[in-house]
Amino acid sequence: MWNFIVEKMKTYPCATFFNERVVYTYSQIINMVIGHGKLLKSELPQKAKCAILCDSGLNCALAIFACWYANLVPIPMSINYGIKHCCKIIELTEPDMLIVDTDIYHDLSPFWYNLITKTITVKNNIISDAILDDIAIIMCTSGTTGTPKGVMITEHGLQQNILKIVEYFDINSKDRIMIARPLYHCAVLTGELLISINNGLDIGFFDDKYNPNAILPFTVKNAISVLCGTPTLLNHLSTFIQRNKITHLIKNIAISGECLSETIAINIRKGFPDTAIYSVYGLTEASPRVSYLPPEKFNDYPDSVGVPLTGIQIKITDENQNDLPIKSQGLIMVETPCIMKGYYKNDEITQKVIKNNWLSTGDVGYINEMGYLYILSRIDDMIIKSGMNIYPKEIENQIVSIEQIQECVVYGVDSDIGQAIALDLVLNNTNKAITKKELMILLAEVLPAYQMPSEINILDSINKNASGKIVRPRRKNDKI
Predict the structure, then answer these.
(1) Which of 112, 182, 235, 236 matches a 20 to 30 Å C-alpha distance to 94?
(2) Which residues contact 136 (CB under 8 A, 6 or more apart)?
(3) Phi and psi, residue 468, nearest 5°
(4) Among 389, 469, 446, 373, which residue's Cα sits nearest to residue 421?
(5) Which residue from 59, 370, 288, 90 is spatially nearest to 98, judged by alpha carbons?
């Protein structure tokens, strides 16, 4: 991987990495990576595993590249998800070393390398795992409320995915991208950092936790022209832009990470009227990008994630993986040269999601008559009420069209008599006095009876993860 990346960086030696504190040219980054990489290479055997926990996104990138230089396997983590989550990843992957940029994380492992002080402690007799011979990186997915899965992404798959994104994403060396989410996410690593290096962009790292109001000043101050994020984040940014009449230079946006409703898409367009907006879809197990909606189609098909990337196939199947006809709702299956090798130390789950080279995404959707893909829900989020399959996102898409409601999340609550629908919502600032009874009347105007919630919770905010993605609650409620 290092040879692939360094050749791109040498093509654009004056392009930069930067954050609020430092600026480095690509040439300087290369020298820094080689310095760290030589030290790691002298202490660790090839394909040793290195967990990475850095407060700085820029330092996380350096650590990943240093691992690639030394032919090691990086395992990015993010402190934004909490120490317990990081400990779960360490327990799963059993890394041979922890790479950090502050000494406060040294206690997580007796064997660590500090990028800042260049101090290192190494265990003896490290034996590399043969299954990692062709692996570029282990990206851990899920696990914020349970056990993470370590996705083994191959060097070939990662490189191929970068080249496929290059074919449609219209960015170049005159652009400046802002990375506002942790490199712990494959969509950020591949679809933001690596694609930007491939095309010679200036790359700015925003290291604060999820904070839409702080992101915009960063984009304005640094003349950012490319921004990627979740629908929730970009919806907040658009609303902030409209309220405060902020002028920005953002010419390209990529939206990923959540299902995009037509209502939210329309609001995003209002804040970014002249911006090319790409709605994209992928998953870590596919390295990650699977499909994209061309920006010229965004206004006409705002809730679609478009067509497969070159060389990738998508089909819709039933639960037995029988192909379904056009416009039928079912499980989304993907065939891609970028498919993962499998889940680290979990052959059982690997065999469940990969069958005959087709990857079961765990997402429910359909393909329309024009070949455009639509995502309805995660299959795990599906609510079964009185024998009916109900997808929370379909309900949310209707609810956010209600003027009094700022944002919401729908989820199932279990009881001894089956599942019911619960709704958490945040009201617009001007509607704090509205009652639940009044809300039920508004909901009944946009929802059929079978989609009406049995429980409504009015909150000050809805829980989001470090990338700004809404966290869907999962709980049991015996009172229903």
Answers:
(1) 182
(2) 1, 68, 73, 153, 154, 155, 157, 158
(3) 90, 10
(4) 389
(5) 90
CB contact at 8 A, 466 and 80: yes
Which pLDDT score is estimated for 110? 94
Q: Where do the CATH 3.30.300.30 domains begin and end in the chain?
A: 382-476
| Residue 268 to residues 353, 362, 371, 465, Cα–Cα distance (Å) | 34, 27, 24, 20
Q: What is the 3-state secondary structure (H, E, C) of 13-31?
A: CCCEEECCCCEEEHHHHHH
What is the rounded distance in angstroms from the CA atom of residue 349 to the CA atom of residue 351? Answer: 5
Calpha distance 180→236 (Å, rounded): 14
pLDDT score at 347: 96
403 exposure class (CB count in 10 Å sphere: 0-12, 13-18, 19+)? exposed
Say how far apart CA 398 and CA 41 lie, in whole Å: 55
Q: How far is CA 7 from CA 30, 169, 178, 200, 324, in A?
A: 10, 20, 22, 11, 44
CA proximity to 8, closest of 65, 52, 56, 59: 65
Whole-prediction pTM: 0.89
Q: Cβ atoms within 10 A of the Cβ of 464, count?
A: 18
State how far the alpha carbon of 115 is from the alpha carbons of 39, 112, 181, 220, 231, in Å: 11, 10, 21, 30, 34
Query: What is the distance between the alpha carbons of residues 166 and 307, in angstroms, rounded to a whole number?
Result: 15
Question: Strand, helix or coil at 447?
Answer: coil
Residue for token pair 């393909």: 367
* CA–CA distances in Å: residue 472 to residues 249, 408, 463: 33, 10, 8
Query: In CATH, which superfamily holds the domain spanning 382-476?
Result: ANL, C-terminal domain (3.30.300.30)
The pLDDT value given to residue 213: 81
Tokens of 260: 């995009």
- What does the alpha-carbon distance between residue 385 and residue 122 come to, in Å, rounded to a whole number? 54
SS3 457: strand
Low-confidence ranges of the chain (pLDDT < 50): 144, 477-480
